[in-house]
Amino acid sequence: MELARIGEIPGDGVNRPCLSPGDRTARRMLIAWANEIGAEISIDVAANLFVRRAGTDPDAAPVLTGSHMDSQPEGGRFDGIYGVIAGLEALAALHDAGIVTRRAIEVVAWTNEEGGRYAPGCMGSMSWSGYAPPTTWDDVRDADGIRYADALAEHLRLEADLPRRPLGGVPHAYLEAHIEQGPLLEAAGLDIGVVTGIQGSRWFSVTLSGASAHAGTAPVGMRRDAVQDMLRAVSALNELMHDPADILRFTVARIDVTPNTSNSVAGRVRFTIDCRHPDGAVLRAKGDAIRATVEAAVKTCDVLVEEHFDAAPVAFHPLVVETVAAAALADGASAMGLPSGAFHDAQFVVPLAPTGMVFVPSRDGISHNPAEYSSPEQLAAGTRVLVRSLVALAG
Ligand SMILES: [Zn+2]
Q1: Ligand 1 ion: residues within 5 Å (CB)
Q2: Which end of the chain, N or C, is less packed with Cβ atoms under 10 Å?
């Protein structure tokens, strides 16, 4: 709640963009709390911030936990920051209890997970994992025209007192706590989500080109009306994407109409498709069928289908998934396995180390919204499962 005051917005929300003064204030608060338990602080060239509690074996790879401290522009108080605070609380609890682990436990705050100020998100974890070089996004600009490279350099200059660590590493395991951001745990009345993986995503745009015309003079039968063809296309796509089990996520959300006036036939429509599924084969088949489905559905317009993003589903490692399930059982928490519908930094750690996540319920499934809420009891239950899991993984 103290952190939520940094960048607070009406309705209990938070606006804390990455690499902003508010981000730095929040990080300093975290560092102050970490100093109280004697943890070591370090930062890498991507501004990922690490809090380390040493283990007894300095040669053993650390167990890594954490999440992100930036928020959506109209975000809530829990997305991301919960996983960082839960990780710090785990270290503090071990410190207070005098428990020593063989492996070090490190808490990481990844830079720019949300992508709200600089798109795409997950730049910190993508850099750290070697998924893309950290200079990849140098020329991306925020709404004020500030380059990412310049914001990052400014941040690192202001944080120059923090010990620098090399980018990357191979942890023994990575475990991220996060709010569910969906309604499943609440609907099932359960405490804990044992996350089994992250579903795959494919993003497309469809452009339908017809001909603009006068709404009063052009006979309907002679038009090449892009809005009417869009309706046919979306109806056909709804049939293609219909899933009786309601696992496939199909979204048409952004629609650009040209000329977008009430008395002209639309000559051109561009709409976006976001398609997600945990099974890579299903996602491949459905995504690959989009072009033919649209082409078969339209009557008069030319069709252009472009793919902008293609991320395969990832499955989390049995070591971590089973550790989390056992921790929930040992703590008396009710739990179920489920895939994550949203992206997380954990996605980019998967190729490097056994990875998993712990979810806690989100009230009404609401997230990326000031109304985002999980109760103190729910957050504490997730933190207990996290600390039990970390102790098991760290020995
Ligand atoms: Zn998040």
Answers
A1: 79-80
A2: N
Kindly give the distance from the C-alpha atom of residue 177 to the centroid of ligand 1, in angstroms, as a whole number. Answer: 10
Same domain, residue pair 230 and 255? yes
Residue 274 shares a structural domain with residue 317? no
Does one domain contain both 145 and 291? no
Report pLDDT for 116: 87
CA 379 to ligand 1 center in whole angstroms: 15
13 and 106 co-located in one domain:
yes
Q: How far is the CA of 68 from the centre of ligand 1 (A)?
A: 6
- Provide the CATH number for the domain around residue 71: 3.40.630.10
Given pLDDT bands bounded at 50, 70 and 90, which one contains residue 181? very high
Render pLDDT for 20-51 as a digit per residue (tens, 0 to 9): 999 999 999 999 999 999 999 999 999 999 99
CA of 82 to the centre of ligand 1 (A): 9
Tens-digit pLDDT profile for residues 354-370: 999 999 999 999 999 99
Q: Are 9 and 67 found together in one domain?
A: yes
Helix (H, G, I), strand (E, B) or coil at 269: strand
For residues 42 and 59, give the distance between their C-alpha atoms in angstroms, rounded to a whole number: 18
How remote is the CA of residue 79 from the centroid of ligand 1, in Å? 5
Looking at the structure of the chain, the number of domains it has is 2
- Asked if 80 and 114 touch (Cβ cutoff 8 Å), the reply is yes
Q: How far is the CA of 23 from the centre of ligand 1 (A)?
A: 15
The secondary structure element, H or E, covering residue 214 is strand 213-214
Taking the centre of ligand 1 as the mean of its atom positions, its distance from the CA of residue 172, in whole angstroms, is 23
CA of 110 to the centre of ligand 1 (A): 10
Instruction: Answer yes or no: do 119 and 20 share one domain.
Output: yes
Range of the domain at 52: 3-199+313-394
Distance between CA atoms of 246 and 248, rounded to whole angstroms? Answer: 6
Domain co-membership, 139 together with 264: no
- Domain boundary (263, 281, 311) is at 311
- Please give the pLDDT value at position 119: 84
CB 163 within 8 A of CB 242: no
Residue pLDDT, tens place only, 94-126 = 999 999 999 999 999 999 999 889 988 899 999
